[in-house]
Structures are given as C-alpha cells and as structure tokens.
Amino acid sequence: MKHIRQLEDQSVFILREAYKHFDHLAMLWSMGKDSTVLLWLARKAFFGHVPFPLIHIDTSFKIPEMIEYRDRLAREWRLNLVIGQNTAALANGMNHTNGRVECCTALKTNGLKLLMDEKGYTGLILGVRADEESTRAKERYFSPRDKNNEWDFRDQPPELWDQFKTSFPPDTHIRIHPLLDWTEINIWEYIKLEQIPFLENLYLDQGTGSRYRSLGCAPCTTPIQSTAKTVDAIITELRNSNVAERAGRAQDEGRGMELLRKEGYM
Amino acid sequence: MSIDTPTSETMNIVIVGHVDHGKSTLLGRLYADTGSLPEGKLDKIQAICRQQGKEFEYAFLFDAFLEEQEQGITIDTARTFFSWGNRHYIIIDAPGHKEFLKNMVSGAARAEAALLIIDALEGVKEQSKRHGLLLSMLGVKQVTVVVNKMDLVNYREDVFASIEKEYRVFLEQLKVTPQYVIPASAKQGVNIATSSPQTPWYQGPTVLDSLGHFQLETARTEQALRFPIQDVYKFDARRILVGRITAGKLNLGDHLVFSPSNKSANVQTIEAFNIDPSPMHAQAGQSVGITLDEQIFVERGEIASQHASSPLVSTCLRAHVFWLGQRPLTLNQNYLLRLATREVSCQVTAIHRIVDATDLDDIQTESKVQRNEVADITLRTKSPIAFDVYADFEVTGRFVLVDHYDVSGGGIITERVHDEQESLRTEARERDSAWVKGVVGPEERAQHYGHRSAVILFAGSDTTSKAFLARKLEALLVAEGRHAYLLDAENLRRGLDADLSETQATEAVRRYGEVAKLLTDTGLLVISTTNSFNRPTSEVIQTIQTLVNPTNVVTIHMTKEIPLLQEDADLTFAGPENFEDCAHQVIATLKQKGILAESLGTHPEFQYSI
Ligand SMILES: Nc1nc2c(ncn2[C@@H]2O[C@H](COP(=O)(O)OP(=O)(O)OP(=O)(O)O)[C@@H](O)[C@H]2O)c(=O)[nH]1
Ligand SMILES: [Mg+2]
Fewer CB atoms inside 10 A, N or C side of chain B? Predict the structure, then answer.
C-alpha cells in the first residue's frame, strides 16, 4: 500500500515533468491494464483532466470488446482520442502469417511512425514496465529516439535525481516511461486500490478456466490457464507463479523484442 | 518470486565495481539460487550459450543485448525485481567499464544501498575506487563490499584480509564504513545465497542475508519543509500549485514563503483526485497540489518553505561535481543548472581542485574538468536561486549541469558563497516578511491595470538619447491606458538624498531601489535611465533587481556602435533613429514577458495566461 503510493507519486511527478517540458505531447493507450493505469495516473496528475491526446494504434486485429471499452471511457472521461493505422500495409494484406516480427513492425511500429510524422509529437508517454522483458529493464524514464524512431541503447543519456532528458535536437523525440518501476503485481494492486475500470471479461476468468494476462492482437495473444475471477485472485496467482507475463506473446521469442524495440517498437 | 507476501517495503540496491569483477554473475546467481527466475529462463539462456558455443554465463540473464553477450560486458544498467524475506527489492545491475560510467551513475543515483564487488585475484582497481567515491557523492551511504572470485585464490583468508584492509582504508577517507565485507564466489555460489564450507574462517552473513541488513532510508518528514513548485495548473476554477515535497510536512493553513521571490500566502486546500475526503496534510515524497488563500504569482522553480527555515538564496555556490560530458567542463562557459525544478544559466568561476579518484589526492588546479573527473568548484548563476547545503537537505542540495542537450554532470552543494548582493537581499527579505499588505493584492491590481508592475531601465553610453526614448515610452504607455511613470534619480537628490554626500552613491542607488519598490507595489511601470547614478551600470541594475525582487527589471541597452551582443540586456538598440519604432519594440517585449496584457476591446479588459 505504502509502496504503491510511492510508485504513484513518482509516476505523477514524471507525468507532470513531461507535461511541463513538451509542447507536443501524447500518450499511447492500448486499453490493456498497464496503459489504463497510466491513463488513470494522468487523471491523478492533472486532477481529473487529461491535457494531451491519447493515441491508439489500431492494427485492426484487436479484440472487439477492447474497442467498445475504449470508446466508452473516451466519452466518460472526455478524452481526446487519436487513432492511427497503417492503412497501406493493411490494404496490402499484412497480417501475422507474414511473420510476427514483420507484422508488428508494419502495423505497430510503422503505424506509430506514420502518426508521429503526421502529428509532430515530440514527447510520447508509454506504459512499458522494466519487469516485462529484459530490454525494457534497461530503459530510462525519458528515453530519446532519433529521426527514424530508433533507440540507441548503446548510448543512453545519464538520468539522475529526477532530472530527466527534456531537451533534444529537432526531428527527434523522447519516449517517456512513468511505469518503469511498476511490476505486474503492482499494476493489479493499484487497479484494486483505486477501483479502476478494466476489461474484466478478458482479464478475469469467465468460467472457462482461462483468462488473458496481457492483451495484444487477437491472433498473437493466447489466454493462460487460470481460474482467477477477481483482482485479488489474480494477485494471489501472480505471487505464486513463476511464469513470465509475456509468455503468451509470440513476438518475444528469440531476439524478436530487441530488434523490434531498437526500431521503435513500444 | 514465489513468496506470498503483500508488498510492504521496497528498497533500491545497486551493484557496482570494476569491469568484469562479477557483478552480473553475482546477481544472476542470487536469482537462480533463490528460485527467483521465471520458469524456463535459465534453460533459454543455456540454449543460447550452447548455440553460440560458449560456456554458460549467469550474467546473460540480465545482459540482455546481443552486443553485451557477445562482448561479455554490461553496457547499460538493468532494473530487476527481487523479493526476499519481508522485502521487495529493485536491484540495479550497473556496468563496470569506464566508458559507461554515466550509466553506472544513472543506476546508482536511484539506489539507497550498494553492493560493491571486488575481484579477489585482481584486487582493488581504478573503478572499484571511482565507484566508491561516486556512491558517496550520489548519497548512497550504505555499502556492503563483496570480495568475489574467491575460488580463483583457493579461498585464502590472507588474500581476502588484505583486500578488505586496503578497501576499508580507502572508504574511511570518504567517511564510509562498509556494513560487511563478504568473501564469495558468484560462479560457484559460495556465500551468495547459502554459506559455504569453503570459507570456514568467515562467520558473517551471505550476500543474500546482507541485503536484509540494509536500513530503509529514514523519512525526511522530520526536516523543515521544502516544496519545489513544479507547475501551476488552471484546468478549471482552481489555480493549483503542484510539486513533490522533498522534505518535511505541509498542512492546511500553513503559511508558506516562496524563495527566491519572498512572496507568501497560506495553504487553502490540498487538492487530490479520487481521494475523499481531501487531505489535511502531505509529506516528503508525495506529489501534491495545493491552492493558496491569496492569488500570488509564483512560478515553477520556486521553493516553498516555512518562514523560519527557508532555503539559502544566492547567485554563488561551492560544490563538488562529477562530470560525464563528452566535452570537458570549462571555466566561464555557459551551462544550464537544474536544481529541483529550477533551471538557470550558470558559469564555473573557479576550479579549486580536481580529485584523483584512485588516491583521493588533489591534482593541480586546471581550467577544465575532464569526463569522469570529480572536482571542487565555484558556480555563479545568472539570477539568484534558492538552494540548500547538501549536508542539510539532500534533494535541494544537489543539481545537474546541462551542456547543449544533455545532462552532463551532477553536483552536491558544499557551501553558499555570499555574493555582492547578500546584505541587500537580507534587507529585502526582512522587509518583505514584515510587509503590511493592503486589501488589494498585486494580482488584483494587474487585472485592473492590464499590466503587472515592472522597472524598465535604459542603460548605455551617455550620448544615445536614453532619456528621450524613456519619455517616449512613458507617453505611449499612458496613452494606451497603462500606469507608467518616469522616475529620474535626479528627483531624489535634493529631497530624499539631501543628507548624502557625493561619495555615497551606493546608498543613493539603494534608496532609489527602495522607492522603486514602493512604486511597483502600487502596480506601476517605473521607467528610468541609469544616467544620474554615478555607479557602474551592472551594479545599479543588480541592486534595483534585488530590492524590487520579484518584480521584473527590464533593461534596454543603447549604444552608438554596431551592437555587441549585450548578454544581460533584454533589448539592444544601436544608434537608433526611429524612436517611435523603438518604443513599440519595448512594448512588444513587455507583452512577450507577460508584463503587459493584451488588451481586448475598447474598454481595457485584460487576459493573462496564468
Ligand atoms: N572464477 C570465477 N569467475 C567469475 C566469478 N564471478 C564472475 N566470474 C566471471 O567473470 C567474468 C565477468 O563476469 P560478469 O558478471 O560479466 O562481470 P561484471 O562485473 O558484471 O562485468 P561488467 O558488468 O562488464 O562490468 C565472467 O566470465 C564470469 O563468469 C567467480 O566468482 N569466479
Ligand atoms: Mg555486468
């Protein structure tokens, strides 16, 4: 409880720094548990307001309930929703059967790149966590991307004492990661503490003995065996589990994630 | 991570030490031997090693980049999550190679405690010492030393003892006492998670046990309040000052003083989202929002405190810095100093000594601080800043320096250096804190007048028609419906200054500043030239600035010659011919600075962005 509030304080501080320093700021929202917690933290930081657009990169392969949930919260919370889609790639028939890394690159990485070019955002807030996979463990809170959206992980800027990298050359941008120190358990503890609305039908077992632990595109995300029907049950299950969260995510296999992230994947 | 405990306390620990001394291996071993790795992770790494025809390395668990694995070296820090006993840890694995010192610093700056690893065969090396020194500068006071690779010296007690002795002596100079010095072998799993028969002569804790002996940082809530303002929001009817309290407590109704502006007001509400009822107090560590009972204009960068214990204010300070920039830190060059939420331009005015990290001796004074060096310097900021000495307040006692686009160094403040303005600043502060306020505050006046108060000074050589332009500006402003007044220093001479002799020019400037202070408190735009002061222009400007603080002093430099870039001036005019045009330029500058509001419609109605 105390620790969760400490995480909250740090994330709110980061969000406020981002808002202060970036004129063209946006936040990615995938409707998953992490980015929804991030959205909630923005409402905390700005006292019920969300003073920047929320981007959803629509690969067209999302589970329909996610879209319904997105539009409902956008209405209720008065969100400025911006939807990006790589329509050219979709028109050419891109899907996961062309290769998972290829598909992710085209629809997510390039979908985002197209939108960034169009809108000229210089600061992008994302809900990645260090415990998700090992290249994310090496991220900074404020992480620069070059002209091609690429991440130069060999030469990251120093980050000390909450003094973040907020100035950058033209045509580059900064990725902001307020959830870096949160674990999967922390996310659920916070959802419970704050009673944040989440996609219950997908994240909780509906009687089938399975549920989603992480939400991506329908073809590339598989549910896990679980009978957790409440948030408390999820937390207990996670405390007693040794399986990595993204085990259900196909693109994480081999060096997939390092390559994807280097080129600008979330 | 298979322990079913609710998240209670969390601690950040960094692993540091010379390159290849076994930091990542030790961390991997700690995870493996406590069953903390996700299922299948070890198998995956073993498969990768087989595939590359390499011996298995625990280090690959966290050295995730291909390049790191190929070179067998950590490039950047990794945050890892570990639970043991009743505690959760974020353990940060730092790189040991000198090339990546900036990454090590980024990791260590977040830590409350450190494990410092020394190779038993190689002994104490350059980065073992440099990392020790940096830990002490970064505020990491708890250190446990691990003498690793004991297998390579046949677990000999004498080898261990001599390394322990050598490193203890080094740490003593930094006033650091290690909690433990542990003989270990990360590779063999000796004294990592379980104690081992290989070191019968050692009775202390294992590395795993030693983690539990690090103390949580004591709350900074017992200190005096420090609340650096991060931003001011006006999303709705509320005008909310936000920020993170860095020390002490804040309560509803508290009387706050803002430094360096010396403004003050009471806390009216503590604002929060989704918390009912709204909080009555807040404390160090919390990101909060407050409203005040009075509409005062405060900005990001000011530090709120209680009156009796406000932070220091000066333009000059002494500090220990470590430099990470590609280009050396150089005397008399401009850098951006960032302290809490304040950003201000600064220069290094003296480099007193450069500390040799390996023997902590002084190196002969230089004019530059090279990358990875530590130095004792004096800094001068362009305008006064509020700060503390690091020994008293951690967060407001340290800063970073930005060169070009990059954070390039960090420093801790060892002392305030009095600048020339010190006595005047004290005078202004004492005057302001005792100031009897009228019913109408500056914000209300600004709303009615369509401008904030300001002092507009025309400076430069004698022959440039400063007085003429000053008059022109006064006339134009008044014609626009603004409240402007030309206050020539000459007008004080026979009256207020009648008791002063020619030699008391400094006192005359002070009195002028106090008069200007009174006039600006009425909401006026005070216009003057620097002609009749008989003191150097920079001194006049500084004195007036200090006395009317936080009212803006806008300086306009006039010259006959081709304009040299006047760093301190807000505007420069060279041999002006079109005075009408110049006056309009001054007005534009005043608008740009938010001093003049844009007028809307015929009847002056004004809109401010705050
Ligand atoms: N014999 C022996 N070798 C060890 C031990 N610990 C680590 N090593 C080896 O030392 C080499 C370097 O280990 P790392 O863990 O990568 O060292 P590091 O300190 O993390 O290195 P950097 O992060 O690059 O500074 C590897 O080949 C390890 O297998 C030990 O206890 N005994
Ligand atoms: Mg390493």
Answer: C
Q: Take residue A101 and report the two structure tokens written for it.
A: 């890394």
| Amino acid (one-letter) located at B480 | E
Q: Is B97 in the pocket of ligand 1 (CB under 6 A)?
A: yes
Q: Which of residues 117-176 of A touch B (CB under 8 A)?
A: 130-131, 133-135, 137-138, 140, 153-154, 156-161, 163, 165, 167-169
Four-residue CA torsion sign, A40, A45, A48, A50: negative
CA distance A241 to chain B (A): 6
Residue by residue, DSSP assigns A114-163 as HHHHHHT-SEEE----TTTSTTGGG--SEEEE-TTS---GGGPPP-BTTB
Whether B257 has a pLDDT exceeding 90, the answer reads: yes
Residues A107-118 have pLDDT tens digits of 888 888 888 888
pLDDT one-digit tens code per residue, B276-310: 888 999 999 999 999 999 888 899 999 999 988 99
Alpha-carbon dihedral angle through residues B566, B570, B574, B579, given to the nearest 10 degrees: -170
E strands along chain A, which residues? Answer: 25-28, 54-57, 81-84, 123-125, 142-145, 173-176, 210-211, 224-225
- In order of B264, B353, B356, the CA distances from B363 in angstroms are 46, 6, 6
Is the shortest distance between the CB of B24 and ligand 1 below 6 Å? Answer: yes
- Looking at chain B, how many residues does it have? 610
Q: Could you give the CA distance from residue A145 to residue A121 in angstroms, rounded to a whole number?
A: 12
Integer Cα distance of B334 and B348 in angstroms = 8
Spatial separation of the C-alpha atoms in residues B606 and B597, rounded to whole Å: 6
**pLDDT (0 to 100) of residue B5:** 45
Phi, psi of B242 (to 5 degrees): -115, 160
pTM of the predicted structure, to 2 decimals: 0.85
Residue pairs between chains A and B whose CB atoms are closer than 8 Å: 161
| DSSP 8-state secondary structure symbol assigned to residue A264 | T
All domains of chain A, ordered by start, with CATH? 2-182+253-262 (3.40.50.620), 186-191+198-251 (no CATH)
- Over residues A119-162, the pLDDT tens digits come to 989 999 999 999 888 888 889 999 998 887 788 888 888 898 99
> Does residue A193 contact residue A59 with C-beta atoms inside 8 Å?
no
Take residue B329 and report the two structure tokens written for it: 């830190």
Tens digit of each residue's pLDDT (9 = 90 or more) over B354-387: 887 777 676 666 789 988 888 999 999 998 999 9
**Pair B81, A183: CB distance under 8 Å:** yes
Structural domains in chain B, sorted by start? 10-212 (3.40.50.300), 220-309 (2.40.30.10), 314-421 (2.40.30.10), 438-592 (3.40.50.300)
> By C-alpha distance, which of A123, A88, A121 is closest to A106?
A88
Looking at B109-156, list the stretches that DSSP marks H as alpha helix, in order from N- to C-terminal side: 126-138
Query: Please, which contacts does B427-430 make with residues 24 or more away whose CB atoms are closer than 8 Å?
Result: B427/B547, B428/B262, B428/B517, B428/B546, B428/B547, B428/B549, B429/B262, B429/B313
pLDDT in the model for residue B487: 93
CB atoms within 10 A of CB A10: 21
E strand spans, B487-570: 525-529, 552-559
Q: Is the pLDDT of residue B603 over 50?
A: no
Decide if B4 and A236 are in contact by the 8 Å CB cutoff.
Answer: yes
Provide the pLDDT for residue A188: 95
The pLDDT-based confidence of B588 (bands split at 50, 70, 90) is very high
Do the bridges between strand B312-323 and strand B406-416 make them parallel or antiparallel, or are there none, so unpaired? antiparallel
Q: Which helix (H) or strand (E) holds B456?
A: strand B454-460
Q: Per residue in B118-138, pLDDT tens?
A: 999 999 999 999 999 999 888
